[in-house]
Give the backbone structure.
Amino acid sequence: MNRALNEQLVLPRSATYTPRELFAWGRRALQAVNLEGAHADQDARELLEWVLGCDSLVSAPDQVGARAAERYRCAIASRRTSIPLQHITGRMYFRMLTLRAEPGVFVVRPETEMVAQHAIDAARTCSADEPVVVDLCTGSGAIALAVATEVPASRVLAVEIDEAACQLAARNIADIEPVRVHLVRADALSALVEYEGRADVVVSNPPYVPGSAHPTQREAQLDPPRALYGGGEDGLVIPRGIMTRARALLAPGGTLVMEHAESQAEDLVAYATAQGFTNVHTAPDLTGRPRMVIATAPVVEQ
């Protein structure tokens, strides 16, 4: 780091600061490095709210002491090196939830909120009094908890194989919805034999990055590879396995919702159709790109 960048990380010496002064300084420090995918105003604000322990700077104290100011300076310095905001604050937001976050576990993205929405809609409209929803590859538990909190009648089974992710999901579930969500540590491609033919909704954000692709953003490079790469050059080994498992788990007329890369839409629609699913189609994410496949388990004619 050159001298100019070092100088940007020096706070003016003072016994106290106003939140406005710290926010302005933090925003300038983040703007100076032009981090890919970062939003200087938003990140500087969230880091300051985290340091001050408030939900909004509107409710922040009038004066901030030197110790808190130094903590903010350190947080800004970490963010300038592309450490994910969620790893600094230990929290991430998903729909209406505030979840714990930590290094070694995939940071849930805003685009996945639409995957959760379609699963929630399917659970709300199915005929079961207590819809059974299975979240395969639950990671931090974000989708499972969104469904459980927004469809209070549901029973959600969250499946994850990775130990670190399971530990984080368990903490998030204990914090938010320990009754409706049951965490199962197992391989998503073979889990829940006892629930075959009983699930009303299967939802998944599985690893799907193609083996030939390499994340260019520093933040994405800090996600665990196990949560990213779907297997094979096209990244479709695990997504296809998830579809096959969903076909076994779903009751007739049940719904599959699965996230995928934009480039994989055509292949996965074809695969779902070959598996016997009906009403197979893709749906857009928040940016309008085809990023999830939605399909219905066939109803057996009597």
Remarks:
- Confidence is low (pLDDT under 50) at residues 1-6.
